[in-house]
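INTERNAL AUDIT FORM
Audit reference: QA-55
Scope: verify that the stored structure record matches its stored sequence.
Auditor: D.O.
Record contents follow.
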Amino acid sequence: MENLKKIRNELLSLHKTLMDIEKENYEAEFGKVTPTQLLQMLFENEKFIWLRTISILVTEFDEMFADKKGIDQELAKSLFEKTKQLFDESDNFAEFKNKFKVNLDTESAVEKHHEKLLNLFKN
């Protein structure tokens, strides 16, 4: 379970990095946004919608860890596999992967998060 917590935390860090990049790109084009506006854009703006894939996954991890009955092993395995699929070569999560690849190719911070996740998948 410790590895799943590390994966969840790394996903959250990656999410923040990607949001910061998207925010910077958005602000360069349209001007400054407040934190409240940024949160609203995460749910409504096409430039940010692709990040919901990670938002939802982190939420699913949090709900699993918070379950008072304990961690459901099947759910844990499912979340692990789902997370791996975000970064594999399959056609699953294609929209996310296309946007992620652009950032992976141009942003060293994204590359570092990606490497950490790939290493965590091996454990």
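Auditor finding: record pair retrieved intact. The mean pLDDT is 95.
Action required: none
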